[in-house]
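Deliverable D5.2: sample structural annotation.
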Amino acid sequence: MTRDLRKYAQDTSIQLGIGAFLLLFIIGDGLIYFIYGKGAAVMGLLCLLAGVAPILIIALFMILLNWVVKRANRE
């Protein structure tokens, strides 16, 4: 039985990234809600989304580039 360590590393990185975002949004915004109230939590959520947007755009661009390179190398 062989192990694909690259696939394992990729899966682990994806799970860690998703976990970090969930912690940031759920715990972070939840604390803002409990300490400051609903209005501050909504503003905190908007600020978190604005801060994460460039990271997501870059990640999507990198995924698109990876897809294009794999498709070009296939031919």
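Annotation notes: The longest helix spans residues 38-74. The two ends are 31 Å apart (CA to CA).
The annotation will be released with the project's public dataset once the embargo ends.
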